[in-house]
Request: fold
Amino acid sequence: VPAGPRPPARLLAAPLQMPGCRSFCTDNTDATRLFLAHCEATLERVMGLLDELENEDEGELIEDLSYDGASLALTVKGVGTFVLNRQTPNRQIWFSSPISGPFHYDMALGPPLAWVDSRGGPSLHERLKQELGEVFGDAAASRL
Reply:
């Protein structure tokens, strides 16, 4: 899911790993700030679309929708609960789906910035479009 301005060139050239720092450590580096900003933009964009759908005809399918800034949960009648949440220590977004199961997404520094499946599957954007399309129809999912 694209998210605003392009990051500084020094971040694009380097992998999103900290020298001398294990993947679960916390820090206040440019890479962490970029991760947090891109993660927030992604979750807010998805929440914005789901908010719109909740207020349209598709909203009849939505049983529950919540977002706390780090985790987004959508419960769909007859389908189950989808969860997107930020995993700051790993610098990932985790997606759990009642349709396809769990996935972990790493931030690719592009351009454009994107979330790539840690196991080589479709990007987060493509997976969300596919699964939201199955639930709400392709027209709704294409707005993502």
